[in-house]
Write a structure and sequence with these properties.
alpha+beta; 8-stranded antiparallel beta sheet
């Protein structure tokens, strides 16, 4: 830990009740998110309440330190990364404050999907549905104005935010909503009054510039929403905060509208033999008012077929694209009829779709939606050095311009010899393009920037925007001056008004001098064979160091492993105490950092490193559920083996690793051992020597172990007439403590 980090930690620990983390291991976990970027902060604070947030902001302002707000770290543009103090709202600020008839008040760290499960009990829903609903937080989604597939029905976050509690750049805690720029209401902060008046003057003075720079696309999340700030003569400061990426203030609580949960939702897959036909079909379907309309290309479909045989039966090999369309409402007959009408328009009237599949039950609806929501991260399963890179994945164009832009996209990719995957919420013109590039290759890094420049020029020509719902972050902020021109100076005035010191998430929305999208890329190259890292990190399970680095690199940080959804098999440790260090991706980040030299080689022998990897209990659920199929348990096993190789085993670890041998010794005199283990003195000794808590109820040794009984009964000898052989590996518990389990299993096999 550097002296500056140590000073910050000591200062903040006296001012906040939450966690203050400044060790190298913790900082490395927060150096990455779901983007392609990596920036290690100086400190991480996990506040327990808004007072902690305010204290950190005041300290940062006094010491000229940048502040970066973070939710689940599922952002694709590097919005929450930076060199200063990262404030993680997802650890403790997870409370649903109040649930009213048609509104709900939540803390910033509340998970979107968990909120909707609570609202469902009241027959309500918060409509905007980002794809990462099971992990993304309400604060993070508000900061980027998230939308999702159902924008056509519910819009985005800015359509539903009523008010919010915000910590301003000087540490003042204020409530923002709609404010009269001429009148200061009772109890309203003088600071808020000045901000409302300043924003009103700014909008009035630059109204022509603001209107002229507004994209023609249905969605636009780029820049600041000055065009939506004035509402009936009132300044809606809450709406201005939506999509500001923590650059104007830190959102701690939000009050949002809720909607009545639709009684019925029916969906269908429309199959096309060309991408162009799918794009042209979208305009034909919109008059029928679908609640969702998503596009998936051939590469997306191929991965789905490889992952689940049901998709292989559902989607023909010749399919070049599919549209997932949905209708929802309260009358089931009307919903079904509208869906049938959409299928008829696509397949018979327009003859654009080659076929259609309608979901007939809840299981099929889930299957269709999994195709849209689950399989974008599966692009990381593709083998080889090229990976699906989220660098130009948030383009939005007017719906009528989709065929033109998609043709330009295909031509550009062909000219640059780049393969890409395409997914999009095309009902509102949103496209997520993932080119396959090797970021260890300087030519591909340059190609990434070239692709962005060429495609964005066409986007602007068609009246679109570089960001529809994922934020500007590090990847799109460098292009905003070209998108907005003179309006960027207005954005700078607004930023100075709210953040005169420039400490709130610098480098997002307002570009820093010389900033480029290729700066601060994640480190993914392993060191040379002579590096000291190799000596400490000697793979135990047949891997070479570069292979280990590649396996860790396969984790794209999508945050799917942070889910606590009851229907998902995922990390039990994270379910109990959700935190970044409990997430499987944290282990991948740490192993990749050691393998690539970002963490010093001796870090793997550090107690903080071991404390983090020990949170993995090797249940392998993350490996099963990971969209990219990253083998986190094996990576963790490598880390633990390296630690033991350097430090040896503690008494507790030796005891647990040799529990079978110890139990064998104890089972020789089971009555005596059981009597001893029941005494308070023995329990005290077990606690001090082996870390076994006195309150833990210990199993009693059986009078005879199962294997001793097997030897006496000669169960291992096969009858001469036996035609089948079964190998039963008896576990320690069944052998020494509950032989009845083993005997009953043998009885089943004999039967």
């Amino acid at each position: 830990m550097e002296a500056e980090q140590l000073r910050i930690a000591e200062d903040l620990r006296g001012q906040v009740n939450g966690d203050v983390l400044c060790d190298d291991v913790s900082l490395q976990m927060y150096a990455c998110d779901a983007s392609i970027y990596e920036i290690r902060p100086q400190c991480v604070v996990r506040p327990r309440g808004v007072d902690d947030v305010a204290a950190v902001v005041r300290y940062a302002a006094a010491n000229q330190l940048p502040i970066h707000a973070r939710g689940a770290g599922s952002g694709l543009a590097g919005e929450s990364l930076g060199t200063g103090i990262v404030i993680d709202f997802s650890r403790y600020m997870r409370r649903v404050v109040t649930v009213a008839v048609d509104t709900v008040r939540v803390q910033a760290g509340v998970v979107h999907g968990e909120l909707n499960r609570q609202l469902a009990e009241h027959g309500r829903v918060f409509g905007p549905d980002p794809a990462t609903t099971e992990v993304t937080t309400m604060g993070g989604s508000t900061s980027v104005d998230a939308a999702g597939s159902r924008w056509l029905r519910f819009g985005s976050f800015h359509n539903h935010v009523r008010s919010m509690q915000v910590v301003l750049a000087d540490g003042e805690i204020v409530e923002l909503s709609q404010h009269d720029p001429q009148i200061s209401r009772d109890g309203e902060s003088e600071h808020v009054g000045r901000l409302a008046a300043g924003v009103a003057d700014l909008v009035a003075h630059h109204c022509t510039t603001i209107a002229g720079a507004k994209p023609k696309s249905l969605v636009n999340r780029s820049g600041y929403a000055l065009d939506q700030t004035m509402v009936d003569g009132q300044v809606d400061l809450a709406r201005l905060m939506v999509g500001s990426e923590g650059t104007l203030g830190l959102i701690s609580e939000i009050t949002v509208d809720t909607q009545r949960l639709p009684a019925h939702q029916h969906c269908a897959l429309l199959v096309f033999d060309s991408l162009d036909k799918a794009a042209h079909c979208v305009e034909r379907l919109l008059p029928l008012e679908p609640s969702a309309c998503d596009l998936m290309d051939r590469r997306h479909l191929s991965l789905a077929r490889e992952s689940d045989v049901r998709y292989e039966l559902l989607i023909p090999q010749a399919a070049e694209a599919v549209l997932l369309v949905e209708q929802s409402g309260d009358n089931e007959r009307e919903v079904a009829d509208r869906l049938q009408q959409m299928v008829r328009v696509a397949t018979i009237d327009s003859r654009l779709a080659a076929g259609a599949h309608i979901a007939h039950d809840e299981a099929e609806v889930g299957l269709f939606w999994n195709l849209a929501r689950r399989f974008v991260p599966t692009l990381y399963r593709l083998q080889g050095r090229r990976r699906a890179i989220p660098c130009i994945e948030d383009i939005a164009v007017p719906v009528h311009a989709l065929p033109v832009f998609l043709k330009h996209l295909q031509n550009t990719l062909k000219r640059e010899s780049v393969t890409a995957s395409l997914f999009g919420h095309v009902g509102h013109g949103q496209l997520h393009v993932r080119p396959l590039l090797d970021l260890t290759n300087p030519a591909d890094v340059q190609r990434m920037e070239t692709l962005a420049s060429e495609l964005y020029e066409k986007v602007w020509l068609l009246g679109g925007t570089v960001s529809g719902e994922h934020g500007d972050g590090l990847s799109r902020t460098p292009f905003l001056s070209r998108q907005y021109g003179p309006l960027m100076n207005v954005f700078r005035e607004l930023k100075r008004m709210f953040d005169p010191l420039g400490i709130l998430n610098p480098g997002k929305i307002i570009p820093l001098p010389g900033m480029r999208m290729t700066h601060n890329l994640r480190h993914i190259v392993a060191p040379d064979a002579g590096d000291q890292t190799v000596a400490l990190l000697q793979p135990t399970y047949g891997w070479e160091l570069p292979q280990l680095a590649q396996a860790a690199r396969a984790c794209n940080g999508c945050a799917a492993c942070r889910t606590r959804d009851e229907n998902s098999r995922m990390c039990p440790t994270n379910r109990i105490a959700p935190s970044e260090e409990a997430s499987p991706r944290a282990k991948a980040n740490l192993l990749r950092a050691v393998a690539t030299g970002e963490l010093p080689p001796e870090a793997i022998a550090d107690s903080e490193f071991k404390k983090t990897v020990d949170l993995c209990v090797h249940c392998h659920m993350c490996r099963v559920e990971c969209p990219a199929q990253v083998d986190i348990p094996q990576l963790v096993a490598e880390a633990k083996a390296s630690y033991v190789r350097t430090n040896g085993l503690t008494v507790h670890d030796w005891f647990m690793a040799n529990i079978d041998r110890v139990s064998g010794w104890a089972s020789a005199t089971p009555r005596t051992v059981n009597r001893i283990l029941g005494s308070p003195r023995a329990r005290w000794l077990l606690d001090k020597l082996f870390g076994i808590a006195p309150g833990r109820v210990l199993p009693r040794y059986a009078r005879k172990s199962f294997m001793r009984q097997v030897a006496r009964r000669r169960l291992e000898l096969l009858p001469s007439e036996a035609t089948h052989k079964v190998a039963y590996f008896v576990d320690t518990y069944a052998n020494y403590f509950e032989p009845r389990i083993a005997h009953q299993f043998v009885s089943v096999l004999e039967h």
